[in-house]
Predict the structure.
Amino acid sequence: MNGVHDMGGMHGMGAIAPETNEPVFHEPWEGRVFALNRALAALGKWNIDTGRHARERIPPADYLRMSYYEKWLAAIEMLLAETGVASRAELEGGRVAPGSAKATPPLTAGQVPAVVGDRGRFERPVNAPPRFAIGQSVRAKKINPTGHTRLPRYARGMFGIVERIHGAHVFPDSNAHFRGESPRHLYSVRFAARELWGAEAAPRDSVYIDLWESYLDPA
Amino acid sequence: MDHDHQELPSDPALRVMALESLLVEKGLVDPAALDALIDTYEHKIGPRNGARVVARAWADPEYKKRLLADATSAIAELGFEGGQGGHMVVVENTPDCHNLVVCTLCSCYPWPVLGLPPVWYKSAPYRSRAVIDPRSVLQEFGLGVAEEVEIRVWDSTSEMRYLVLPARPAGTEHMSEEELAALVSRDAMIGTAKVTLSGGA
């Protein structure tokens, strides 16, 4: 979706403000949100792409106003309600609805090291060989899907060169919507800065973007 | 796919407390697991891990070869693997080329080697500017990159995670791996700093 989350190349966002000796969490509640997100993900009711897409669906003005973990909190509430794990009434009232199921075993502290250490592999076997070879010219498709995609707007329609083949990976555009993993080949594509941004960009600079095969046409 | 957005209590701390207690009551969350997750990312996983990878690559040319060829396995050799690090790529800074990592679409970042990202990495200014104007971004970090040096920006749009292998500073030939690791900052492994003899943070 053409959301405000797709920020590459936007102007007017201001100066970068690095903080010295920044704590991992600025407030205890940020840590709770981070941990809730991981503990709930372990229930297996949604996947990483669904989670990203939930954050993208936060209304643009809210997205820009909210802090990072406020966005995570909003997305957790959306996912709980949308998957029926908790009802909107429960989320709003803070009370368990009478008769609601309590059957799911939660993630335990003992399981945390295994969850943290799980590499979360996203590569999958596929039968078809990669359509594109290293060094080949490609063009990112001009698409504007209303659902989840990882093809940033700034790259659409642009010409690039395949630099690496990462193997076949889970396809977020499908997985985010519970339509299956639909794995396909993933490439690192090099785009010259001047191709992306025009003649004022530095002549030798470039941006490397990981793009799935179906985002690309031969060029 | 739009959903009504509820009027939210203004204090996120209260809202999170209410949400956690609801989920505990529903049997979906164990508070001890939350404590363990927070402790892990506050105290056990952070940029010191990545610094050890960098120091090993500087000290051991064979390790560096493996790291650049198959970063996921080479990093796992040092015991660092886990969520948000299942598919690693290491990119090397050289006198001709400077690398910078960003995630324009969200906040993808190699947790097992760098920990959780700082606020600026997840912020709109960095995400919007790193791809279109990396040189002004680097200037803001106090890092001037000569015109003839190529800048490669890596936009983390997939589950591949990128770590910059910074250049080893001159005058460190006598140093042990441990001393080298102490010089390597988090920002040097994102690409917004260089490694200097004055050390890392």
Observations:
- The first helix of chain B runs from residue 12 to 25.
- Residues 23 and 113 of chain B are 31 Å apart (CA to CA).
- Chain B has two domains: 12-43, 46-190.
- Chain B touches chain A through 86 residues (CB under 8 Å).
